[in-house]
Amino acid sequence: MESFFDTLIKAIFIENMIFSFFLGMCSYLAVSKTVKTSMGLGIAVTFVLIITAPLNWALNTYLLKAGALSWVGDAYKDVDLSYLSFMIFIATIASMTQLVEMIVEKFAPALYNSLGIFLPLIAVNCAILGVSLFMQEREYSFTDLIAFALGSGIGWWLAIVTMAAIREKIRYSNVPKPLRGLGIAFILTGLMAIAFMSFMGIKI
Amino acid sequence: MANSTNDKEPIFSVKNLKNLTGPFNLNNPITIQVLGICSALAVTVQMKPAIVMALSVTIVTAFSNLIISFLRNTIPTSIRIIVQLVVVATLVIIVDQVLKAYVYDVSKKLSVFVGLIITNCIIMGRLEAFAMGNKPIPSFIDGIGNGIGYGIILVIIAFFRELLGSGKILGMSVIPPSFYEMGYRDNGMMILPPMALITIGVIIWVQRSRNKSLIEK
Fold first, then answer.
1. Which of A133, A182, A190 comes nearest B216 by C-beta?
2. Annotated domain spans of chain A
3. Number of Cβ within a 10 Å radius of residue A2
4. For A176, which residue in chain B has the nearest alpha carbon?
């Protein structure tokens, strides 16, 4: 259980998806204009991450990894399908977002109305595929993976909501004209990333 | 956009040339269209990985644009995202295997970011916005143009980060040793992730000061 919280804290603060890996920047910059919508997108990303990461973990462990097919029989124990992982992962993510969208629409229409437009966007959010690829590279155990997926989602949510709050305020400031909009958003993200770097001192 | 009257359009017509050079500056995918930032900034600590990344993205964008443009009339709209992702993923697997075979050290440095080309918004954005409604050859040219536009920004950022951060260009030291003796220090901050964001902010600032029409309200 200890490593669960370690991985969680590390994923939220120290290795934040946006501030140290720049993953999911496109939707981060496009949607972080108001707090309300960014809240919705943040929750949707966390939700999809928690569903897709364990699925991809299972696929990686029992299908793709070198020697993963040994449960089929001795003849398959040398098979290494890891070169197919990009395609399998992205197929899982695309079909799961489609499925989640349909399920949410049927059973929770209120939630669908607030998340609806964001769900298709999530299929191409780099943070989702990034978590699956990091999972493969770092060889997480199952509990660590859940912590990592949850932490990455919360970290992403935290980043987009704080950014939206700042951008709501900055509308009333006198920013130099060429910097308005995108330019200042980048510089703000950079400054926030510097602030987040202070978490690096935490030893876990 | 695609009309059947200009079937015999030459490859280097004015319109195609505009598709090619537009993304270099006034329609740049990173600074104007805000696409493809996800996997871009993390690979800009040094110039070599940045150049390899730019080449890979150009190849994948151009060929996925070409393939999707050939298929554009047969893909049902409801499943087009999945079809596009499969085409892109196939191309990325090829690029990844080639990189592993010929430039293994760079491939290790890029780590997951090669895989993340799949979800690079430039590719999906150009497929949706251009290849689905245009003929194969203009789409191919559009892909190359956007890939190069992306590459230009990547190389500019990497140039400044490598020069100021470690005093090198493409791995060769360019700051003379006498400077270090006089007390010059490399700025370690430039190697860290936040400075990539601030560098791109400054690039946008410079670009928009020169082209007033791009300024946002």
1. A182
2. 4-198
3. 7
4. B205
**CA nearest A193 in B: which residue?**
B194
Task: Mark yes or no for CB contact B96/A184 under 8 Å.
Answer: no
The alpha carbon of A145 is separated from its chain's Cα centroid by a whole number of angstroms, namely: 13
Tell me the chain B residues in contact with residue A17 when contact means C-beta distances shorter than 8 Å.
none
A82 vs A65: CA distance, rounded Å: 5
Q: What is the pLDDT of residues B59-83, one digit of tens each?
A: 999 999 999 999 988 888 777 778 8
Q: Are A160 and A41 in contact (CB under 8 A)?
A: yes
Stretch B97-124: mean pLDDT, rounded? 84
pTM reported for the whole predicted model: 0.82
d(CA A186, CA B3): 39
Query: What's the gap between Cα A165 and its chain centre?
Result: 20
Nearest CA in chain B to A129: B116
Whether B2 contacts chain A with CB within 8 A: no
Which stretches within A60-181 are classed as H helix? 85-107, 109-115, 119-122, 126-138, 142-170
The DSSP annotation for A33-44 comes to TSHHHHHHHHHH
Report yes or no: B59 and B147 within 8 Å, Cβ to Cβ: yes
Residue A147, CA distances (Å) to A154, B63, B175 in order = 10, 38, 45
Domain borders along chain B are 37-208
Q: Which residue has the higher pLDDT, B27 or B158?
A: B158
> How many angstroms separate the CA atoms of A29 and B67, rounded?
29
Q: Using an 8 Å Cβ cutoff, are A60 and A68 in contact?
A: yes
CA distances from residue A133 to A29, A88, B89 in whole angstroms, order as listed: 23, 11, 13
